[in-house]
Amino acid sequence: MPGYTTRELVVCLGGRDYRIRALSDLQQFADPLHLAERVGISSALWSLFGQVWPSGRVMAEAMSMHDISGKRILELGCGLGLSSLVLQQRNADITASDHHPLAEPFLRHNATQNQLLAIIYRDLRWEVPDLTLGLFDLIIGSDVLYESGHADQLAATILRHAAAEAEILITDPGRGNSASFTRALALQGYAVTERRSRFNQDDVAPFRGRLLSYRRSGSSNPTELVRMS
User: Fold this and answer.
1) Where are the domains of the chain?
2) For 98, what's the count of Cα atoms within 13 Å in the CB-facing half-sphere?
3) Alpha-carbon distance 72 to 2, whole Å?
4) In whole angstroms, what is the distance from residue 6 CA to residue 4 CA?
5) Mean pLDDT computed over every residue of the chain
6) Which residues contact residue 4 at a Cβ distance below 8 angstroms, ignoring those fewer than 6 apart?
7) pLDDT tens-digit map of 5-20
């Protein structure tokens, strides 16, 4: 791999082993064509997509048993795509998305080496509407509230792409940005339930990490709710 090194991992998700190509460590960086720089990904953040994070594992485990029947599913900020791989193995209707220039080739490689069909991938910037993406019944994201400004961007993306009775699932390791996201989704008619989760073996109860589930009834009109606010 030019400019950076990788490692091969075996990650057990939902009782099944997956072979995952990841970056060797957090010090890897290569942006010779300035693709990441043009979309605002700094050298300090460049390597984050290419790691296996506890938040991603928690979401992937949840997706190994979640009800997916008849649902169109979108993964936001997929990174290495652990959840998308699990969902593809379950024959789900899954679309993975990210905005890192290497997310798609890593996802494609990881699907291939696990004998899975190619996963639909979309380059999705949360702040830029994509009128071709459509609506989804289940939208998932692992540690996507990384910075304070992400809450409003993510809420706007959900407003554009969530079906009337969609469920939104977010893993939050406890960065402190979920409260503003919850308030933003309340304006769209969502109520939240949370499940405290162990993100690392060293975690002790009450766990700081959470799996957040947002749901609304089909009678809610998110456009009207936002306009009234």
Assistant:
1) 6-228
2) 25
3) 36
4) 7
5) 89
6) 23, 24, 28, 29, 30, 47
7) 999 999 999 999 999 9
Instruction: Indicate if the pLDDT at residue 91 is higher than 80.
Output: yes
Give the pLDDT mean for 101-115: 97
Q: How many CB atoms lie within 10 A of CB 158?
A: 25
State the residue for tokens 């702040």.
127
Q: Is 19 exposed, middle or buried (0-12, 13-18, 19+ CB in 10 A)?
A: middle
Rounded distance between C-alpha atoms, residue 207 and residue 173, angstroms: 9
Contact 154, 144 (CB under 8 A): yes
Phi, psi of 110 (to 5 degrees): -65, -35
Q: 96 is written with which tokens?
A: 């993975």
CA dihedral of residues 155, 160, 165, 167 (deg, nearest 10): -40
**Cα(95)–Cα(37) distance, integer angstroms:** 25
Rounded distance, CA 45 to CA 122, Å? Answer: 20
- How far apart are the two ends of the chain, measured CA to CA in Å? 49
Whether domain 6-228 has CATH 2.40.10.270:
no
Bridging pattern class, strands 136-142 and 72-76? parallel
Residue 49: which residues within 8 A CB-CB, separation 6 or more?
A: 79, 80, 98, 100, 102, 103, 106
Distance CA 119, CA 87 (A): 10
Indicate the pTM of the whole model.
Answer: 0.90
